[in-house]
Specification:
2 copies of one chain form a homodimer. Chain A contains 13 helices and 13 strands. The first copy, chain A, has 356 residues and is an alpha/beta fold. Chain A has 2 domains: 2-162, Rossmann fold; 220-348, Up-down Bundle (Dehydroquinate synthase-like, alpha domain).
Chain lengths: 356, 356
């Protein structure tokens, strides 16, 4: 295990991000924690181990397991195993496993130790650092949660090889989003220059990609650990449009990342329409998304608009009754703006004007 | 409303403690928050209002409502009312209402605003400041919770008049506990000098009592906001013995405070037996408890010992497998120590040696 970076959050809480050579290296590290642990897998990630640890929960894979019932299962097991506040929950999986495991760790005896092993690109570059924990509630994504940074995040690039194309692309969308949020162009250039290697999941390239992507996220969350300063909200670029799409399509048609890619392109268009985003920049950025094969042309049917709008209205980024959208003044220059409903409708329901 | 004190916790979060002239003053202040609020009452505290606010949850009074179902009810209502992260949950009641309301506020959209109006002496001097939130789980007290300080705590002394004797005495035990944890003797002296006025709930005396008691708690929690330094654990004086008594008697025979009074006297005896607590000091402190009429002589029956021990073993103050007890080197000089099982058994099961 090699230290990759340290992320410092609210109250000085630190997350150590460590890089493993491979799954074996990872297992050896985790084995060192002994018996005061509870492991959380999903029905895919449990297959990464030939022999599973005895104290474990295996969640159904997918968003539908991200609920209070799963949370109770983990906490019950921790209690049965006699874990104290110095006990550890190990979340071994993608964003769903990570978010629930983190919430369980933050709630169990008001906080026990937490290790996250992200097994998807999405959770590696996004969910595993920053301390956001969550379950869905009444069909609303992440309505219940806390801020509780993991003590450590263990990254093993080799697990990315076994991801489905859909899952891999889901993570890649957040990487591209991070590239647009970075003032330096390093990540953006890597995405342009190494498209083939990235799509082929070439290990060296992925290592660089993950590191650069994490550095962008780190720079935003360290300045605003509990999302109260407005800075961290920038990471929600594409998410307000995208979450509502995910919700109104019941989390099936679009992966999270595919929805974010779609949502980010909508946000770029909204920025152009509002005179905030340069048209050429928006066009180039949309083209970058397009080059990785996302469905950016999808439009909401007329019969679905009311539901879509309801989901938008309930967005957590709402402040004082108005939904705030992240728009881009340029690369690395996010701003929060409300948008008029007729503009939103024209962007999500019809072929939008101004897309490249 | 007059500012009484400001408590600063993790990450600089501040709780303003305000003193109301009376319930009317309180209502006027709360009315100023408009409609983006959800009120939480219990089936006693709702009677303090002639006309209840429309957006409200009324919990069954008592510990049995302190569960995940109540939590879900509050969060559902907040969602139905369209509260954003800038919305506010108002917990109007004793410790149970306060703990659940606080947990709901900490979880709703990863944190919304929170006002606590403690209506019992116990919640005024203890639960309402410090940011501990909780529900019980599988019969274990406060197993699920977070740290989430209220934005404001509103104190109206006149509500104490309507408390039952049992409820009032429950709070008074925590006040006496605070007196033992304070290095200066002001609170201890007040308790000795004004016993009659205190038992008569004389308003001026209570105001002083609440303020001094809050100052003791503030001094401990500000030095250790998330109970990681060992300092804050001192506030659990009497609670390890006491919680296990509450749990094993199913939260009915003893009020929380009565159990803490009993537990504190057991901790004083344990301190004497371990050579940590001066015998005369322990005797005087036990006498102070006795003068307010607590049942300090209760003993666990032989058939209940296993259950009592099991509850002790699951205590949250366990670290590295060993239960830590708060013992007193002297007034304001708490220390954490493990205790041998045979000593514990002799203290809780038989007439103990060395009690004054």
């Amino acid at each position: 295990m090699k230290p990759l970076m340290t992320v410092t959050l609210a109250g000085g809480a630190k997350t150590e991000v460590l890089l493993a050579d491979d799954i074996k290296d990872l297992s050896a590290h985790l084995g060192g924690y002994g018996r005061s642990v509870v492991w959380v897998f999903d029905s895919n990630t449990n297959k990464l181990f030939r022999q599973l640890p005895p104290s474990r929960i295996i969640l159904e894979s997918g968003e539908s397991a991200k609920n209070l019932v799963s949370l109770e299962r983990i906490i019950s097991l921790a209690l049965d195993e006699g874990l104290g506040r110095d006990g550890r929950i190990i979340g071994f999986g993608g964003g769903v496993v990570g978010d629930i495991s983190s919430l369980a760790a933050s709630l169990y005896m008001r906080g026990c130790r937490l290790t996250l092993v992200p097994t998807t690109l999405l959770s590696m570059v996004d969910a595993s650092i920053g301390g956001k924990t969550a379950v869905d509630f009444h069909g609303m994504k992440n309505m219940i949660g806390t801020f509780y940074p993991a003590n450590e995040v263990l990254i093993s690039i080799d697990v990315l090889k076994s991801l489905s194309e859909r899952e891999y692309k889901s993570g890649l969308a957040e990487v591209i989003k991070h590239a647009l949020l970075s003032e330096d162009q390093e990540l953006y250039k890597l995405l342009l220059a190494r498209r083939t290697e990235i799509l082929d999941r070439e290990e060296e390239t992925l290592m660089k990609l993950v590191e650069l992507s994490l550095l962008v996220k780190k720079s935003y969350i360290e300045r605003d650990p509990t999302e109260t300063q407005g800075i961290r909200k920038a990471l929600n670029l594409g998410h307000t449009f995208g979450h509502a799409l995910e919700s109104s399509t019941r989390f099936s048609a679009f992966s999270h990342g595919a929805a974010v890619a779609w949502g980010t392109v909508r946000a770029l268009e909204a920025g152009v329409a509002s005179g905030i985003t340069d048209k050429k920049y928006a066009s180039a950025a949309s083209k970058l998304f397009g080059s990785f094969g996302y469905d950016l042309d999808h439009r909401i049917g007329r019969g679905e608009w009311i539901e879509y709008r309801n989901h938008l209205s309930k967005d957590k980024k709402k402040l004082g009754g108005e939904v705030q959208f992240v728009l881009l003044r340029g690369s690395g220059k996010p701003e929060l703006h409300p948008l008029p409903w007729n503009l939103i409708q024209s962007l999500v329901m019809e072929k939008a004007i101004g897309r490249g």
